[in-house]
Design a protein that fits this description.
By secondary structure, the chain is mainly β. It has one helix at residues 15-22, and strands at residues 2-3, 9-10, 36-43, 46-60, 63-72, 82-86. A hairpin with a 2-residue loop joins β4 and β5. It has 1 helix and 6 strands; from the N terminus they run ββαββββ. The longest helix is centred in the first third of the chain and has 8 residues, at 15-22. The chain has a 4-stranded antiparallel sheet, covered by helices on one side. A two-stranded antiparallel sheet has the order 1-2. It has one domain.
Length: 98
């Protein structure tokens, strides 16, 4: 994860911790204000970018899924080389106000 607000920070965290922190209550929490994410994929050798909103994360073993709403662009029809960059929200490390 990385953020430039409220202060610049970068770190890694286990996916299970990230999902647990998702449910923290507060006006700036991911529950109250679902995060936007940039989804980049390589499709047929070409970069495809979509901006999405993620809700209701679910971790089943090592498989992480979200309910996703496309805000701009389009989701790829199938998997492949894909990266997801999720906008920051409040976490125990960066509590409200954020």
């Amino acid at each position: 994860m990385f953020t430039d607000r409220p202060k610049r920070a970068a770190e890694a965290m286990p996916t299970a911790t990230f999902i647990k922190d998702w449910g923290i209550k507060g006006k700036s929490s991911f529950v109250a204000d679902p995060p936007n994410a940039g989804l980049t994929s390589i499709v047929d050798g070409k970069l495809q970018i979509a901006t999405v909103e993620h809700k209701q994360p679910h971790l089943d073993g090592t498989t992480l899924t979200f309910q996703t709403r496309v805000l701009k662009g389009a989701l790829p029809a199938s998997g492949g080389t894909t990266s997801v960059f999720i906008d920051s929200g409040c976490t125990p490390k960066f509590p409200e106000p954020c």
